[in-house]
Amino acid sequence: MYTEEQLLPLSAVGQYIHCPRRFALLHVEQQWEDNCFTVEGKILHEKADSGVKESRGSIRIIRSIRLRSYELGVTGIADVVEFHRVLSEENGVPLPKALGKWRPFPVEYKRGAAKNQDGYKAQLCLQALCLEEMLKVPVPEGALFLGEKQCRIKVDFTSVLRVQVIESCHAMHRLFVSGITPPPTFGKWCASCSVVEDCMPKLTCHSAKCWLEQELKAIDS
Length: 221
Fold this sequence. Notes:
Lambda Exonuclease, Chain A; eight-stranded mixed sheet; 7 helices; about 40% helix
């Protein structure tokens, strides 16, 4: 169990899974630079972060919900959480001024296309784990909204994904406490990274052999 002072940003789990060095540069060394991708992401989140509530039949939509998990040591804001009405015998939670019971369904907005979704799915699953801890109700699925393709992809929170997210949360806490930034691993994922200039993945490999291996790996991936 983590304390309030130990809570890390919920979004950090996706950064850690994508690249532990990126996580360390952002959260251990506190380095950050905006680029066109991060600016586009902020614009996409403006409506999601407005806090406006909506009702669409059997769905209630709430934006900018504050989440936290003391078991996993994270806190953050969910872009959108839809509450879907469920049958009376199913697990759900009551909502103000609404009859029946409702099950949370988190929706995360991302600017990118359907590439490298592991980090996206992990962040969304972590939101579900937070909701389960806070509301004491199962959250079996959610969705990603990909801004580049304007499409929505349903994500099932399988036991495999849940274990990956839980282990990654504890691993990023260990890295954060250690204060040691991992060495770089260069790949095509570096092209859109906002901290690539600080990371310098091509220059900080430890040897010519390391650089060659990373270049070949990037070509094959």
